[in-house]
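Hi W., the adenosine-5'-diphosphate complex you wanted:
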Amino acid sequence: MKIISVVNQKGGCGKTISAVNLSAALSKKGFKTLLIDLDPQAHATFALRKESIFNITDILERIAQNESLPETALYQSVSENFYFIGSRIGLASLEHKFSQRDDRLDILSLFLKAVSADFDYCVLDCPPNLGLITLNALQASEYSLIPLNICDFSLRGVEILKDIIIMLKEFKGKTPICFYLLNQMDKRSRFALTFIQRVKEQLGSLLLSTVIRSNVHLKEAAAYGKNIFDYMPESRGAEDFAALAKEILNITSGKAWTQLFLKGEKVDNVYVIGDFNNWQKQENYKLRKVGEDIWTLNIPLEKGKYRYKFLAGDAWLTDPHNKLSEDDSFGGKNSLIIVE
Ligand SMILES: Nc1ncnc2c1ncn2[C@@H]1O[C@H](COP(=O)(O)OP(=O)(O)O)[C@@H](O)[C@H]1O
Ligand SMILES: [Mg+2]
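Structure:
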């Protein structure tokens, strides 16, 4: 089961709409998909008009207490291949309940491991904050989708999220691979086009090529308790989410991704140079600046062992966020990635 968290600490940027309609699109393409509403405000639960008997709060409480889960009625069926676990306000109090536990970041992961054989994809709709529930989702997921919209795109927002992800990498050794999604674009507006261009230049391959346009049918579908494919399959919204699912399928199948970071270097550019690019400085291996001094890049790698270094301005650096390294032939060290 591939797990994708939809995160952004801002409300209103399109997490719920993306989580619901991406899940629907994946299920329409024949992939068995589980959507979990992790927001105590339960917008996705409302959007699908599904009041589950069992919701994620009950499930996480049981997992935390080592109690067994019911064999049936754990998930609700929305449509063919599309399953759902709802939320309720009580989820907010779990954060407090779990806060003293050593395994507080792993409770959702434990549950998802238990159901992993039942689904191809699991999509997590996160709350608009970076609290314990979101950290559980980041910890559990292999990929994160970060919706951004034109009105409130700010480097600051992206930067805080990235900081959290770097912290998780240092603390737990594992982070999701992050991709950004532009949502609520009006491609007829010149301002929007300039904006898209600017974000593309800034984020490079971290930005998905699918853009979700503003589409009133997406809003209506949510209000009627439907996903866009059941509500208005011929709409632009359905077209965009089908394209998104295609792109996500492409990203998540086959390739192993490695996410690289460099933080705290006051330089104009950072490249990663190593075995995967024959130790040549190449533009598609240029890290992207996603904050004041945070640089990042996702690279797809086949199975194998790769040595690399960062070239930050004029300085060669080993990766400070990667403990694996190997001696180089100049008396220094190369960082090391092993893809199994
Ligand atoms: N592409 C879009 N076109 C039209 N309305 C949208 C679109 N994306 C989001 N919305 C609307 O914007 C509001 C916020 O979106 P939502 O997905 O709930 O954001 P979040 O979960 O990040 O808080 C909702 O009313 C939603 O219906
Ligand atoms: Mg939401």
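The mean pLDDT is 90.

W.
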